């Protein structure tokens, strides 16, 4: 079953008919919220609110292992993660929707592996290409079908938050090759990889990264872009599920 992880601005999914809410406990603790099983475009899908419902968990407080494990237990065979990000390069203007193909991880202190119990043999997953190409392509096809301003590829820089970055940090990230910046892409993506679940990300650019505009970044500005853009995101996801 296809599963969605909803981020800021997508605590509930419009168009989803809820069939059941599964309160799942995992070996890694409780997930952010119940896993919602529902119907979208006539197909069974799963949904979880990354920050809880209501939205209360900060990016570093999310139990990413429990969220991914709970989705797996509920029957997820593929994951699309939705998140709001800042734009760094001209490739990622505000209001565009990026389907990244790379990640740089700047987070710290998060539980970022399922394999930290003493296990033999020691496991190192391949993460050269952190997003599943076929799933990315289905997302891009759906985005094209709904005529979204979609960007094929880009590097997602995952920061610790919850504060936004300094202009120097964004400048360093740009030099590193990052196109967008968010706080939740890691360790989520690698945990899906560790469990062998195909994973792709859809990132709505909601503000220019620090120092990339002459204005302060305000929550009002971010919320306005989220409000304007999440409808299109849901439309694309519904189209993808419908498989038309
Ligand atoms: N930085 C980090 N995370 C974000 C941003 C940002 O500018 N905008 C939305 N999420």
What does it look like?
- This protein is of the alpha/beta class and 244 residues long.
- The chain is built from five helices and eleven strands; from the N terminus they run ββββαβββαββαβαβα.
- It has one domain: Rossmann fold.
- It is 27% helix and 25% strand.
- Strands 1, 2, 3, 4, 5, 6, 7, 8, 9, 10 and 11 form an eleven-stranded mixed beta sheet that branches.
- Helix 2 packs across helix 5.
- The radius of gyration is 17 Å and the shape is globular.
Which fold name fills CATH's third level, the topology?
Answer: Rossmann fold
CATH homologous superfamily classification: Nucleoside phosphorylase domain
Computed over alpha carbons, the radius of gyration is: 17 Å
**Ligands bound, unique:** hypoxanthine
Mean pLDDT: 95
Sum up the overall morphology in one term. Answer: globular
Order of helices and strands: EEEEHEEEHEEHEHEH
Largest sheet: 11 strands, mixed
Question: What distance lies between the first and last C-alpha atoms, to the nearest angstrom?
Answer: 17 Å
Strand content: 25-35%
* Helical stretch tally: 5
In the CATH classification, which architecture applies? 3-Layer(aba) Sandwich
Helix content: 25-40%
Structural class: alpha/beta
DSSP summary, beta strand count: 11
Unreliable runs, pLDDT <50, ≥5 residues?
none
**What is the total number of structural domains?**
1
- CATH level-1 class: Alpha Beta
What order do the helices and strands come in, and which of them pair?
Blueprint: E1 2-6, E2 17-22, E3 35-40, E4 43-49, H1 64-73, E5 78-87, E6 97-99, E7 102-105, H2 133-145, E8 150-152, E9 155-158, H3 167-176, E10 180-182, H4 185-194, E11 199-208, H5 219-242
Parallel strand pairs: 1-4, 1-5, 5-11, 6-8, 7-9, 9-10
Antiparallel strand pairs: 2-3, 3-4, 5-10, 6-11
Helix pairs in contact: 2-5
Hypoxanthine is lined by residues 84-86, 159, 164-165, 181-183, 206-207, 209.
């Amino acid at each position: 079953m296809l599963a969605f992880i909803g981020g800021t601005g997508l605590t509930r999914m419009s168009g989803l008919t809820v069939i059941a809410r599964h309160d799942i406990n995992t070996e890694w603790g409780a997930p952010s919220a119940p896993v919602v099983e529902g119907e979208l475009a006539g197909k069974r899908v799963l949904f979880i609110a990354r920050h809880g419902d209501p939205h209360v968990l900060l990016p570093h407080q999310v139990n990413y292992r429990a969220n991914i494990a709970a989705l797996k237990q509920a029957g997820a065979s593929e994951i699309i993660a939705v998140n709001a990000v800042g734009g760094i390069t001209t490739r990622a203007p505000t209001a565009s929707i990026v389907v990244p193909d790379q990640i740089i991880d700047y987070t710290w202190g998060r539980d970022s592996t399922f394999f930290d119990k003493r296990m033999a043999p020691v496991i190192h997953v391949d993460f050269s290409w952190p997003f599943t190409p076929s799933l990315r392509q289905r997302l891009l096809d759906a985005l094209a079908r709904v005529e979204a301003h979609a960007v094929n590829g880009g590097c997602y820089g995952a920061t610790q938050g919850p504060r936004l970055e300094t202009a120097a940090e964004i400048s360093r990230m740009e030099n590193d090759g990052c196109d967008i910046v968010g706080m939740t892409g890691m360790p989520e993506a690698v945990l899906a990889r560790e469990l062998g679940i195909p994973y792709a990300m859809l990132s709505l650019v909601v503000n220019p990264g620090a120092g990339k505009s002459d204005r302060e970044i305000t929550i009002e500005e971010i919320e306005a872009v989220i409000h304007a853009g999440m409808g299109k995101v849901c439309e694309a996801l519904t189209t993808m599920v419908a498989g038309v």
